[in-house]
Write a structure and sequence with these properties.
Layout lengths: L3 E6 L5 E7 L8 E4 L9 E4 L9 E2 L1 H18 L5 E7 L7 E6 L9 H7 L7 E7 L1 E2 L12 H11 L5 H11 L9 E6 L9 E6 L2 E6 L5 H50 L14 E5 L4 E7 L9 E10 L2 E11 L12 E7 L22 E10 L5 E4 L6 E3 L8 H9 L6 H9 L11 E12 L13 E6 L4 H10 L5 E3 L23 E3 L5 E4 L7 E8 L5 E8 H9 L9 E7 L13 E11 L18
Parallel strand pairs: 6-8
Antiparallel strand pairs: 1-2, 3-4, 5-9, 6-7, 7-10, 10-11, 11-12, 13-14, 14-17, 15-16, 15-18, 18-19, 18-20, 21-24, 21-25, 21-29, 22-23, 22-26, 26-27, 28-29
Helix pairs in contact: 5-6
């Protein structure tokens, strides 16, 4: 009747609680329960639908198949490839899926691999679903089998005309009849080496099963097309690579060589000059494979006849040297752009075709994957030393690039990434010893006090706390953001303060000036300018709750410097400024000022914390 009962039992087998559930429909599936509440004895009970003579689908499975059938109908009207997969929730059938495909080619190669080798061009639209077929009348739960047993079971149960498979097929085909031109098949999971897909075909109103064959029909056409496409792609790529290597490599590598030498030249730096030696600059290039050496022709010296070129490899415990001797000086070429700079190519190989020396003049080739430095020695006709260059920068000799790296060279040449050579040099070859702060002349306001107007009580919300801000710039928000970065300090903010309580009790006319003044606690306010074009500083007073402006004052930077330089009470006395903050509108506060700020003025620098501030007597400001 579809009812189900749960029983709770104590440790002494005394029933504690019985809960019964009743359903309006017949029970489906399988259930595991204890007969008469006797635990831990469990039995498998079959739902009423499992004992039907004809396999059927649960209502939710019918809706799922109808949805997939509608999707197939829409896709079959288009030219795009598609695949529909339906899996069974039943545990008494081998692992696999029922598939309806637009082409049998999708049985040959996995969808993921097919999408990869085709560059996603042959990736089909995919729709998947899961259903449950009831009434198969097989043992449940299934017996636990080994992997080999499962493989044998798949081979045995899914031969042609297997009764279980045909029952499932006839149940599903009522909802997912393949559209014209498509194929329906059962495809086992990981069927390679175990079993092949079984295709269902209809002839004379009858369905029959056949194994899928690779070299027939659509599959053969697909393999032929795939082979032709891959062959054509490989041949085209090879021809293109050959053409680039044969006809365009020299031009491309020549331009890359010029760029490499130019970048390396922009990063060189001279640390010292020693004796009569001259500076030597060397750059490794890939094509031709070797090192380009450059030096400035010596003036005021006897013209050399021969040059000896040395390459030295520094190894711990030993020193390996490669020498090219007796190179005629007049054969050494100069740069096309500058005839005063000599240029010599030191090839990695023992003898480079087209070189200005013979193979017998060189001792041995350079070794790849090692570091060398280079030097030139000038001699006269009698082979007496005239002068010797400094050792060049140390270079790593990399192996020559192969043809497979040509695409990377093309990208580098035609789609370069702009790079600042100075920034690259600083990032890779220099140590930064600064903290990144912009040097500023800082204004320091200390011992700040606020004197309130005697009618301050007329201000709206006058009993709220307030705070002051000071910034050097056109906009407060910009200065606050700049200061937050830590590189500059163009914004300062005070702590909250409140007006005197007596002033708010309507006795302001009877208070002395000192009684209307309060000291502003906290650290001194420090702020500086980013450049000399900024002429004014802005002081603002804000409500503490909302942050809205109450009053404002603008002060010239030059006036602050003038106040600092004035002699008021002797050099030992700090210099003081007074600034009136005024409300923008008379409707807010109809007086000449709202508060008067008094503070000691001083200046300091932010260049280096180790720099000591000089005495005020020795300090002056340049306009």
């Amino acid at each position: 009747d579809g009812s189900m009962m749960l029983a709770a039992t104590a440790t002494d087998s005394t029933p504690l609680l019985d809960i019964a559930f009743h359903t309006e429909h017949a029970a489906t599936g399988h259930f595991i329960s204890a007969p008469d509440g006797k635990l831990p004895v469990l039995q498998t009970l079959r739902g009423e639908w499992q004992d039907r003579d004809k396999p059927t689908l649960a209502p939710e499975s019918e809706e799922e198949l109808k949805r997939i059938a509608a999707w197939m109908a829409r896709r079959s009207a288009t030219t795009r490839p598609w695949v529909a997969k339906i899996r069974l929730r039943n545990s008494n059938v081998p692992c696999g899926s029922w598939q309806v495909v637009s082409s049998e080619a999708y049985f040959i190669v996995r969808l993921e691999l097919l999408a990869l080798i085709s560059g996603t061009l042959l990736r089909p639209d995919l729709q998947q679903g899961t259903v449950e077929v009831l009434g198969l009348k097989k043992e449940w739960p299934p017996k636990v089998l080994s992997q080999d047993s499962v493989a044998c079971d798949i081979q045995a149960n899914h031969s042609r005309g297997d009764p279980l498979m045909m029952k499932i097929f006839h149940t599903l085909v009522e909802y997912i009849k393949p559209p014209h031109g498509s194929t329906l098949a059962w495809v086992p999971d990981d069927y390679v080496g175990m079993s092949t897909p079984i295709i269902f075909t209809q002839r004379a109103q009858k369905w029959r099963t056949v194994y899928h064959k690779v070299f027939t029909g659509q599959s053969l056409l697909f393999l032929a097309a795939l082979g032709l496409n891959l062959t054509a792609s490989i041949v085209l790529a090879s021809l293109l690579l050959f053409a680039i290597t044969r006809y365009g490599k020299e031009t491309i590598m020549s331009r890359l060589q010029s760029d490499t030498v130019a970048v390396a030249a922009s990063q060189r730096i001279t640390m010292k000059q020693t004796g009569q030696a001259w500076r030597m600059f060397a750059t490794f290039v890939d094509h031709p494979h070797g090192v380009i050496m450059r030096w400035t022709k010596q003036t005021g010296e006897q013209r050399p006849t021969f040059l000896w070129v040395y390459a030295e490899e520094s190894i711990v415990g030993e020193c390996d040297e490669v020498c090219i001797e007796r190179i005629k000086h007049e054969k050494v070429p100069t740069m096309k752009e500058n005839s005063s700079i000599s240029e010599f190519f030191f090839s990695v190989e023992h003898n480079q075709p087209g070189s200005i020396y013979q193979a017998s003049q060189r001792s041995k080739p350079l070794q790849a994957l090692r570091c060398y430095r280079f030097r030139v020695e000038a001699m006269d006709a009698d082979e007496n030393t005239l002068c010797v260059s400094d050792w060049s920068n140390e270079l790593f000799i990399a192996p020559q690039s192969s043809v497979f790296e040509m695409p990377l060279f093309l990208v580098k040449e035609f789609f370069p990434v702009p790079t600042d050579s100075l920034g690259y040099f600083l990032d890779h070859f220099a140590d930064r010893h600064v903290n990144g702060k912009t040097p500023q002349q800082m204004l320091v306001l200390s011992n700040i006090s606020i004197e309130f107007h005697r009618n301050f009580k007329d201000l709206q919300d006058c009993d709220e706390p307030f705070y002051l801000t000071l910034f050097a710039g056109d906009a407060r928000d910009d200065c606050e953001k700049e200061t937050f970065t830590g590189r500059v300090k163009t914004f300062a903010k005070s702590e909250l303060f409140e007006p005197p309580r007596d002033l708010l009790m309507n006795v302001g006319d009877f208070l002395e000036d000192e009684q209307k003044k309060i000291p502003l606690g906290g650290e001194p306010l420090r702020v500086g300018r980013l450049n000399d074009q900024l002429k004014q500083l802005t002081f603002r007073m804000h409500w503490g709750s909302s942050g809205e402006d109450v009053a404002e004052a603008k002060v010239d930077w030059a006036d602050l410097q003038w106040e600092f330089e004035q002699d008021k009470g002797g050099l030992s006395q700090p210099q003081t400024i007074e600034i009136d903050l005024v409300c923008e509108s008379k409707q807010v506060f109809d007086e000449d000022y709202l508060v008067c700020l008094t503070a000691h003025v001083s200046f300091e620098n932010s260049i280096d914390s180790g720099c000591k501030e000089i005495d005020r007597i020795e300090r002056f400001f340049a306009e």
